[in-house]
Amino acid sequence: MITNKALEDYSREDLIEILDANVDAIILVDTTLNRYRAVVRRNFFEDFIDETGNYHELIEKLWFHLGDSNEEITDDYKAFVSYYGKYKGKYSRRLRLFSKGSDVPHYIQMNVYPIKDTDKYIYAMDELGDSEYLEENMTDRKLNTMQNTYLFSMFVDLIKDTTSSICVTEVSDEIVNSDITYSQWRSMTVHMISKEEQAHFLGLTDPEFLKQYLKRGQTTSMDCRMKNLEGVYIWVKLIFSRAQTKSEDDFRFVFMVQDINNSYKDLMSALKKYEELAQKDSLTGLLNRRSMETEIRNSIDVYKKGGNQVSLIMLDLDHFKVVNDTYGHVVGDKTLKAFAGILQDSVEGKNATVGRWGGEEFVIDLTGISRDYVYAFSENLRKKVEDYTFEDAGHLTCSIGISHLNSDDSFEAVFNRMDDAMYSSKESGRNRVTEL
User: Fold this and answer.
1) Per-residue pLDDT tens for 40-99?
2) Beta strands of 380-431 (E only): which ranges?
3) How many alpha carbons lie under 13 Å from residue 125 in its C-beta half-sphere?
4) Mind telling me the catalytic residues?
5) Structure pTM?
6) Which end of the chain has the smaller Cβ count within 10 Å, N or C?
7) 7-129: which CATH topology?
8) CB 323 within 8 A of CB 332
């Protein structure tokens, strides 16, 4: 039994135990066998889902029924069941389910987690709470969200070139009437869009484009920066939705501007964070092997298109295994981080990239520097390492190999020469620079 602890006292095992005790249903699915097994069934799910069964029948039970009741859909539509229930990634959905013989809905939050490199999934489902309260609460929240996030809305008739039912929520929740035409609104609004995205805005809002490509009931949108009433550019989503009418010649649309500024910034920040995590070595903060290889290949491509000379340097700490064996891996990691710091400082102000290739091996990509200077730079770097006092590990040396890109070289050719040069330094006694 998990007791109430301070945040820092909870272990991963504690959290897994808490989740296991609180999730209402956990189901393992094998789509290849078309089978499922319920690992956990509590409360509503105890009677609603069998312990094992046919996966297609489970999918049918979860969402192939009329939305406001447990009445089943016609058999013709059940033919689609087999096309559901396969996911390319994580998936989340809110369900409205009914116990047998009951007309009171249960609101369920369903999350699906694919098991990597298999055709299996984990379903985790929870009942959200009292249905009547939840339904009312969800409606209120939806209305509040509409008011808070939708800055502007209006109705557009492209044939008549008119606008109506305009609402600017930054000013008032009241709908206002205006005699501004759609053409006028469009020509004025484009100036509120950031210059980089004005052409996209004009293309999206072009009446002929909307008529030709947006079918009845369809929606299109774009994210862009737009001035708010205070003159500040914020991220918004522009949404055009064509009315679901009977006539193909009816070109009426709802247009809305949604404030996505905070969520967009959060998304961009998260993407930047994960981009950096994916590109960098977790220990040293330098580029990892995959990213370093990409940088080298890019340098080669630029050179072959008439760009600057490219030189590659590989460095390997001598007798590093002795450091790990003598002082332990904690000291070994500190030593590698310090070594990486020396390399990073050495390329400051130069057209260079440095990365960890693996273990105690590091690579530097130098462009636009003469071959003579590259050798002198490498000798100077070798001496810096030799003179440096590593915390706990003391004095260490490194072996260095250099190669220069020739016009007919592939990545593999120039890289292998660098690698051979470094190993030549090793075999010649270490703590030296070899150029091939």
Assistant:
1) 999 999 999 999 999 988 988 887 665 555 666 656 556 556 667 777 788 887 888 888
2) 389-390, 394-395, 398-404
3) 28
4) 360
5) 0.45
6) N
7) Beta-Lactamase (3.30.450)
8) yes
